[in-house]
Design brief:
146 residues; alpha/beta; Rossmann fold; five-stranded parallel sheet; 41% helix; globular; binds S-adenosylmethionine
């Protein structure tokens, strides 16, 4: 699916997503594991953070300076209300490079929405946005784009 179509769909379910997923533990064990591999806890970026920002909460508790990025305006707006003081970027990760270098980047069930031909270049872009010993965690899969 084209990223803008994905954004339009998430805009429609942003409130539902927040109430349904805010307390979900799905992916949290993997996030905690990625955190253990991260030597310096400086900046962290949650790509496709969604409206609950549940990864942002965990990263914050571990002492990272966390930022969230999402293509959906509605998801970002709701996440902002829950996470005051956090920097959010309303961006399509295909079109923009992350603005700084990060100790940890999480792309949990966000970039897997991308058409397959865009997933590798986006992963390379995320690797380029890591500090020398930084950690990237991501889920992948999906279908060929239209
Ligand atoms: C399945 S939700 C996952 C949300 C969150 N990571 C979680 O696990 O609760 C996918 C999120 O990725 C975002 N997303 C999809 N494609 C994106 C893109 N190209 N750039 C940035 N965000 C994207 C969607 O807007 C949505 O908020």
């Amino acid at each position: 699916m084209h990223p803008e179509d994905t954004a339009a769909r998430y805009n429609r379910i942003a409130e539902w997503w927040q109430t349904q997923h805010q307390d979900s533990l799905y992916g949290i064990v993997q996030l905690e594991r990625a955190i253990k591999f991260t030597h310096k806890k400086q900046f962290a970026l949650d790509v496709g953070c969604g409206s609950s920002g549940r990864f942002i909460k965990v990263l914050n508790e571990h002492g990272f300076q966390v930022e969230g990025l999402d293509i959906s305006e509605e998801m970002i707006d709701l996440a902002k209300q829950l996470h005051l003081g956090i920097t959010f970027y309303r961006e399509d990760i295909c079109c923009r490079s992350p603005p700084k270098l990060y100790s940890l980047i999480a792309a949990w069930d966000g970039t897997f929405h991308l058409p397959l031909n865009l997933q590798e270049p986006v992963m390379k872009k995320l690797c380029d946005a890591l500090k020398a010993d930084g950690v990237l965690m991501f889920t992948c899969g999906g279908r060929h784009g239209r």
